[in-house]
Every structure is written in C-alpha cells, then in structure tokens.
C-alpha cells in the first residue's frame, strides 16, 4: 500500500442538510482531511442535490480543509467554472458525461483546481489511456452513483489494485480515491488494495450516534493495522 497519509473524506451527502454548515464544521473538528461535495442533477444520475450556490453559502463557515466537488452531472463544463468560483479545490467528473474529456480537464486546471476523473463500477480503466498524465485524482466508484448508503461492490478491490499498478508503473502522482459503501469493515482492504483515500458518507454521518471523531479514528486504526501488515 501507498506510504502517503491515507485521506478520510466525509461525503456530506449523508450530513444533516438542515444544518449543513454546522455538520461540516463538526466533521472537520473530528479529523476529516477533505470535504466531499456530491453534485447530482437528476439527469446523469437519478437524484438531485446541491449546486454552486450552496457551496458558496457554506464559505461563511470558514471551511479550513480542501473541498472535493464530485460532479455527477451532464453536461459538465458550465458547472466547472461555477464550482471553481464557489470555492472548490478539486473537481471530478465522469468521462461519460463530458463531450470532450481533455477539454474539461484543462478547464479545471486553468481554474487552479485539481482535476479528477470518476470511474463508475463498470467503466474500464482503459479510458484513462491517453489522458492519465492530465489527471490529479482517480475516483473509483464502488457503488453505482446517485445515492448514499449503498453496499460496496467487492469487484472494486481488483480495480483498485489495477489502478494502483497503472499509477505506479507510470510513476504518476495521482491520488486514488474510492467512493461508495466504505465502512469500518472494508476500509482496511481498500487501503491494502492500494487506495490513497476513501470517501465515506453514511458510515461517518449516520453511525455511532454521530460521534464523527470516533468513527474517523476507528477508520484510521483499521488503516494503520493493514499498513503495519504490509511494512
Ligand atoms: O457519490 C456518491 C454516491 O453517488 C458517494 O459519495 C456517496 O455519497 C457515498 O455514500 P456512502 O456510500 O458512503 O453512504
């Protein structure tokens, strides 16, 4: 497994939308490394969530860690500029949703954000072939996108290993994130397979009586157990 610090990235899709700003402040104090902001359009995915106005409004809470915007929208490009202006640090989109993948990646970088490609469970890693050197983040979906609270698809473990191999063989500095169905029970295997980061929604916001610090620290413990095994 990678020697970099493994990032725990709470997905605020499972936070309390009536108190979103306060929930974000709480999860940052609990030790989150990055905030994951899921944008769904009821077109590319069958659910509707938050737009750039919401992210902009949340600035009032003084978010002190990077914001990772995951665009599950089609078309993609118009929203890239809007989210960069609203305070996104990383912007990730699905290759199937962009007319011109390379152009969308360029747009993100020109706006001084890190650029990510999100791969659905059935999307082949081959689609990275010609653009991998333009990507800062690979977000491997371990559920079909659209909803929180789904179960982790076990086939993802093999895909994490394959993606790790491609990144290492090409000597690239790409962050490998895994998103969907991440729990205390599987985060160790996800890290062991080669991920650098895990996005977790319901496991952090809906469990352990909302003691976010306890869940995040238990996740770090699981990761350290597997890193001790592999060192
Ligand atoms: O992008 C998505 C779902 O489309 C994810 O970010 C989920 O929000 C993760 O939620 P859990 O599976 O951890 O509950």
Automatic annotation (TrEMBL):
Gene3D superfamilies (alphabetical): Aldolase class I
Pathway note: Carbohydrate degradation
Catalytic residues, chain numbering: 38 (proton acceptor), 179 (proton donor)
The keyword Zinc appears for this protein: yes
Binding site for a divalent metal cation: 36, 38, 70, 179
Cofactor notes: Binds 1 divalent metal cation per subunit.
Enzyme class: isomerase
Listed GO biological process terms: pentose catabolic process; pentose-phosphate shunt
Protein role: Catalyzes the reversible epimerization of D-ribulose 5-phosphate to D-xylulose 5-phosphate.
PANTHER family: RIBULOSE-5-PHOSPHATE-3-EPIMERASE (PTHR11749)
Name this protein carries in UniProt: Ribulose-phosphate 3-epimerase
């Amino acid at each position: 497994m990678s020697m970099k610090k493994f990032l725990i990235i709470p997905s605020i899709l499972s936070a309390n939308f009536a108190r979103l700003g306060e929930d974000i402040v709480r999860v940052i104090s609990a030790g989150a490394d990055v905030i994951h902001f899921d944008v769904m359009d009821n077109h590319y995915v069958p659910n509707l969530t938050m737009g750039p106005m919401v992210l902009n409004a949340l600035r009032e809470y003084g978010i002190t860690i990077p914001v990772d915007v995951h665009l599950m929208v089609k078309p993609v490009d118009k929203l890239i500029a809007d989210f960069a202006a609203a305070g996104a640090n990383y912007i990730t989109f699905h290759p199937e949703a962009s007319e011109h993948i390379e152009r969308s990646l360029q747009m993100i970088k020109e706006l001084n954000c890190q650029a990510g490609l999100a791969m659905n469970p059935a999307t082949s890693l081959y689609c990275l072939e010609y653009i991998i050197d333009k990507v800062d983040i690979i977000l491997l979906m371990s559920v079909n996108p659209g909803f929180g609270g789904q179960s982790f698809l076990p086939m993802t473990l093999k895909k994490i290993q394959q993606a790790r191999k491609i990144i290492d063989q090409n000597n690239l500095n790409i962050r490998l994130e895994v998103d969907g169905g991440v729990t205390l029970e599987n985060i160790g295997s996800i890290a062991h397979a080669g991920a650098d980061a895990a996005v977790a929604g319901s496991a952090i916001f809906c469990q352990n009586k909302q003691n976010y610090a306890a869940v995040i620290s238990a996740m770090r413990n699981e990761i350290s157990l597997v890193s001790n095994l592999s060192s």
